[in-house]
User: What shape does this take?
Amino acid sequence: MQRRDRIAFLVFSSWITIGLYLDGWAHNNDKPETFFTPWHGLLYSGFAVSVAWSVLERFRRPPGLGNYEGDRWLAVGGAMFALGGIGDFLWHSLFGIEVGIEGLLSPTHLLLMMGGLLAATSPLRAHQAGATARTVAWVNGASITIAAAVVAFFLQFLNAFLVDAETLATADSVGDEGQVVQSFAIAGVLITVTFLTGMALLLRRYAPARGVVAASFTVLALGAVGMHSFENVALVLAALAGGLAIDALTARDADVRLVLGAGAGTLTAAWCAIAAATIGMAWPAELPAGTTLFAMLAGVGLGQIATSFELQRAPESPEPVAPEPVAPAATGDRYLASTAT
Assistant: This one.
């Protein structure tokens, strides 16, 4: 895959993902619930353009320039997305438009998710197939961020940036109802922080550039609160703080366990403080303190896994080396050299 193709697929993936998030915003703000909407048009038009580009590139590719290994997965992703789109239309026609969490777990929507993931990660697969790390670091970072945004969309029901005031106002940790509400919220915080920390591990490996983790965390948080008209926009600062902590420690070449543990702890502590200051939090002190410590341990655990399986940083792909010129044979050896060939 040429550099032009990698950038093109980033544009198409961003196009599709923006349509996806606009669709989420429309559902959350009670916009008309039909299949034929502007946001669906944006979503599917991005896919149509990416298919058209792929077909055009097939004809423009010079003879003998084979396909890289990831192309077959891109084709699989395109087929999944097409099936998901057709199935989504049929599903809505037969059963109506999903409302609430069932829309995130609809089989046709999950097919669209898998197809989108394979398309968004095609630049990353191209890098693994032999592109140089220097020329595609920012492309890798964008690819990972877009893929994470697609997954995060379908995990909205456990997204810490979408917490509501009623959940944080639940002070009772003894009654069954209060425990359920608080447990669900804490699970959302831990899953969100662990998800972002795992993404940071991928960014460290495939996109080792300054500020990339902070930028990616901020984009994902903004996307989440944007679907709810930016009601909890202040919580985006927690994502930024966690990303900056990881970037700063990475720049100092700190141990990956320290990097991820400190990043997860910073993000969670900042989330708790900002939520308390801007939304209001009636939780007992043990809950935010324990959640922060739990998140730090999860980050350290991910760092240990990375250390054990050597996933901290990807070795830079070697630059192509030109063959050394062969010195002409000496006069007395010309006959031997010619007969040897």
